[in-house]
Amino acid sequence: MNYYLKILAISFISIQLLSSCEKKTDMVTESDPGVAFCAGSYTNENGYQVPCYWSGTSRVELKGEGLITGVVNAIYVVNGIVYCAGTYSSAKKSGIPCYWEGSLLHVLDAAGYAVPSCITHAGGITYTGGEYLDETNKVQSCYWKGSAIHKLSDQGYNSKVICIGVTSSGNVFCAGSNSSTYTGSPYYYKNDEYHHLSVNDILNPFSHAYDYHSGEVKGLDIVGEEVFFGGSGEGVYSAWAGGTQPQPGKWKEDDVAFTALSIDYDGSCQSVCAANGTVYYGGNLDPDGPNNNNKELTACYWQEGTDVTFLPDGQLVQAIGYYKSTLFCVVTGISGKSNPVYWDGAQWYELVGSTDIGKAQLRCYAIAR
Known about the structure:
Layout (H helix, E strand, L loop, with lengths): L1 E2 L33 E7 L5 E7 L2 E4 L7 E10 L2 E9 L6 E6 L2 E4 L6 E9 L2 E9 L5 E7 L2 E4 L7 E8 L5 E7 L6 E6 L2 E4 L3 E4 L6 E3 L2 E9 L2 E13 L4 E10 L2 E6 L6 E9 L2 E8 L12 E6 L4 E3 L5 E8 L2 E7 L8 E3 L4 E3 L19
């Protein structure tokens, strides 16, 4: 089972001790299978942004030769090893794309600007997905297999891979959005084959042709060969905004029509988790509907086949994960808390790190196990 991650993530695992091989990597030693793994960065006493992840609420700093500053954009945990993708800067160069395998830093191939946004590990290979700048200064979608860059086809617009996963048979799925519309246009690749998500059924009054729905994929998860996508799609009219706003929804590989998670409500879906024989989607929603002039987006999640569940606090569920009978959420916008927080259904855990020096960065997040 593969789970997508994007800047801050949760992972719940049973640890298996592996024999050492040529590479020296750090093994996770948490005995509690309910520990959450989250990643991002914190600001140290010198004012530098430092890449790190948290095991529960204990912070683990990530290092590398020449590293001065950096950030983790995604995390994945499998077979007791923590994989993190992000960028770092040295005295000679800034924004170097990379991933960490335990504490071991790997630099990703890139001729210029490139940023990994997601990571997974399957069949003994680490895959990271993201974006790079081509020779025409267009931002293009790509993924890395190990450290080697694999450039995906030019969509004609700026585009980026936001989430990545690998099926049990080895098919690589990358998903994200391009800039063909104001709110983006959702897509996925199955290996090198491009697919547009949503349906070509919106009449354009200027071209008199039918356009695709707008939106973007924010998360994917895979069970065997079955692929689930979550994100935001063609929205509903909102009085407070004076126009159309995106609404949270879902797609499947074999059903590219956008399905709203809460019909006629605006909000967003940020993360997907397929577990326990069902699918969970995390995001936010205005409980009073799109025509509420006192706009108040509230953190929530959806379980397949049930109505929305609102959390007791927070503005957005950035990541969602399931272990045994517990659903975990990474939440931002908690009252009175400046750091990222995760929720285990019973209490809040604030990610302040192993010391009180500096603050954890509120960034984008995502999930895996």
